[in-house]
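Section 3.1: Structural characterization of target chains.
Under the original work plan, the team committed to producing a structural model for every single-chain target entering the pipeline before any wet-lab resources were allocated. The record below documents one such target. The sequence was received from the expression subgroup and is listed exactly as submitted; it comprises 242 residues.
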Amino acid sequence: MGVLSGKTAVVTGGSSGFGAGMSEALCEAGAVVWITGRNEERLGTAAEKTGARYFAADIRDGSGWDKLINAVTGKTGGIDILVNNAGGGVRIAPLEDQQDDDIEESIGVNLTGALLGCRRVAPIMKKQRAGTIINVSSVCAREAWPGWSVYSAAKAGLVQFSRCLYTELREYGVRVTSLIPSWGATNFLTSAGLKPFDDDTKSKAIKPGDIGALVVTICTLPPHLVIEDMTVWPLVQEIVPL
């Protein structure tokens, strides 16, 4: 019996990177974990490795969320943990070099998708009078670097949204946490078209298993406690803000 036995968790962006680490850690803790993303083949591969269940959906689409939630609750009856991890750099460049589609996609995957998911899961958790929502932001929500304006705006919005949502759900015993990581040993930079870390730096960055362990810690706090936000830096990263 794990510390999260009997709990049902949903992890967006769960097929790789931090999402895969979260899924694996939650499964090892005994939770029934559902991962979601747009690539069904990658989801299936990740689910086979971790023991999670999977459901292909685009989190930017409300109807996709409806189908996912119906599939999960149809099997388990409720949702105890929601981790809005899906996100991406999309295009990291000065604002004037971005296309409207780039901006809309970045806001959609990094902010709107989490709002749509929370809107559907919040009533379930309120009725249960228990639940944990973890919204994965970025240190870009707190610091400022050139080229990261659109991504940072979305991630900053997610942090403030999480704070406000907590005030709405607190009286029902539902917790909302912003998890705010920096450099990760993932494919984030490559996917955004940026130069990846060298091997030494990547070996010292935040690993998917590290972030997974933090998610389990947040979810296993005594029920009368909540972490408003948690910022995680790797020691290898020199912090030079605005």
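The CA atoms of residues 55 and 94 lie 35 Å apart.
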